[in-house]
Amino acid sequence: MSLAQSVAVITGAGQGLGRAFAEILLKNGAKVLLTDINETVGQKTLSELAASHGQDKVAFLKSDVTKETDFQSAFSTAKSKLGAVNIMVNNAGTGNEKDAWESTIDINVKGTIKGTKVALDHFRKDKGGNGGVIINVASIAGLNPNPCGPVYGASKAAIIMFSQCWGMNTDAVSNGVRINVLAPAFAETEMVKALRVGKEIHKPEIATQMLDQVGVLPVEKVAEAFLELVTDTSKNNAILKVSAHMGKGYHSLK
């Protein structure tokens, strides 16, 4: 899949993995609409990426993934500023396990479902679309349980199963839509930095041990795995794991 004529919408793109995904797409010729609920961070990232890749290659929209109308606005904004969207990246996520645990479900699970639903409506050929690829960002925590994040783990497991169900759905496949899952281990993001503090998780001492044992990936390495899922048109309904110590590899639930 050539990215020269591609346009992507990325949630949670102001920093961390979302920004790394935007950068690798831009480097390979795509245009990108960054969306993030944090307007200050998003605008800063927009300024930096526009300076590196061109004002006409990237745009920003403040967006809340808990609101389906914001996804609709993202698609219409991207189309008017950059062109028709054919890549959707549901990346926004959080990991609160305690006082705001419901936000973890609202953002991680419901946000991914809403983003996928809107993208499917835009991409499906039987609804006037031209096909496309949806990348839903889960985590190895959705495959390997641990005591530090039961809500987070459950949310990422839900993303994986939701994506697998749609990935094998003939309504998606026959209408030119691929759906893949990226499942990274720890990466150099603000969320992972917060694990060492441990205010929002259970058993922070175990989280620290896991970080030391598993290792922490540069976000650029996760972005390389992400790019493979986007550009390799043979990949549909795939789950790609990537970690510092084990590298990358495909996982099957069968």
Automatic annotation (TrEMBL):
The keyword Membrane does not apply. Keywords: Oxidoreductase. InterPro entries: NAD(P)-bd_dom_sf (IPR036291), Sc_DH/Rdtase_CS (IPR020904), SDR_fam (IPR002347). GO terms for molecular function: 15-hydroxyicosatetraenoate dehydrogenase activity; 15-hydroxyprostaglandin dehydrogenase (NAD+) activity. Signal peptide: none annotated. GO terms for cellular component: cytoplasm. Pfam families: adh_short. It catalyses: resolvin E1 + NAD(+) = 18-oxo-resolvin E1 + NADH + H(+); resolvin D1 + NAD(+) = 17-oxoresolvin D1 + NADH + H(+); resolvin D2 + NAD(+) = 7-oxoresolvin D2 + NADH + H(+); 14-hydroxy-(4Z,7Z,10Z,12E,16Z,19Z)-docosahexaenoate + NAD(+) = 14-oxo-(4Z,7Z,10Z,12E,16Z,19Z)-docosahexaenoate + NADH + H(+). The keyword Oxidoreductase applies. It is an enzyme of class 1 (oxidoreductase). Its EC number is 1.1.1.141, 1.1.1.232. Catalyzes the NAD-dependent dehydrogenation (oxidation) of a broad array of hydroxylated polyunsaturated fatty acids (mainly eicosanoids and docosanoids, including prostaglandins, lipoxins and resolvins), yielding their corresponding keto (oxo) metabolites. Decreases the levels of the pro-proliferative prostaglandins such as prostaglandin E2 (whose activity is increased in cancer because of an increase in the expression of cyclooxygenase 2) and generates oxo-fatty acid products that can profoundly influence cell function by abrogating pro-inflammatory cytokine expression. Belongs to the short-chain dehydrogenases/reductases (SDR) family. This is 15-hydroxyprostaglandin dehydrogenase [NAD(+)]. It comes from Plakobranchus ocellatus. The lineage of its organism: Eukaryota, Metazoa, Spiralia, Lophotrochozoa, Mollusca.
